[in-house]
Design brief:
mainly alpha; about 0% strand; transmembrane; transmembrane helix; cell membrane; about 130 residues; single chain; 5 helices
């Protein structure tokens, strides 16, 4: 294929914008529905962690996605999303870890997408199409 389809920087931008925008919707939902933090707080207290950690969801689902969408410290943003999803899996989805859906898909496909996309951004960085290329 031609050079048009061999553009690593464009691929990184597409990955960043895709994962960033999609997880940002979850963060905006939590901002508009602050009661959703109650669920997270209860889950945290169930494993003896402080309730204040629930506010970390805003870091992982609002600040980090904006960081990677705009390409500002994208690697850190990817790490924050990855960490956010580790917490989500431990707190809310442990019982579904080895579960399949009725159509044969993994029950945690969405969470897995965010987890591994955050990890990909961590290792790939922002590329050149970014406010602060790395």
């Amino acid at each position: 294929m031609g050079k048009l389809f061999r553009n690593d920087n464009l691929g990184k931008l597409i990955l960043r914008v895709t994962v960033g925008v999609l997880i940002l919707f979850h963060g905006v939902h939590k901002i508009l529905n602050p009661g959703s933090l109650d669920f997270i707080s209860k889950q945290l207290s169930g494993i003896n962690l402080p309730h204040a950690l629930a506010y970390g969801v805003y870091v992982g689902e609002v600040i980090a996605p904006l960081m990677i969408i705009f390409g500002i410290f994208s690697r850190l943003g990817g790490l924050l999303i990855f960490g956010n999803m580790v917490f989500a899996l431990v707190l809310a989805h442990r019982s579904e870890l080895f579960t399949l859906t009725g159509t044969g898909g993994w029950a945690l496909e969405l969470q897995g997408f965010y987890l591994f996309s955050g990890l990909a951004v961590l290792f790939l960085g922002s590329g050149r199409i970014a406010i602060k290329p790395d």
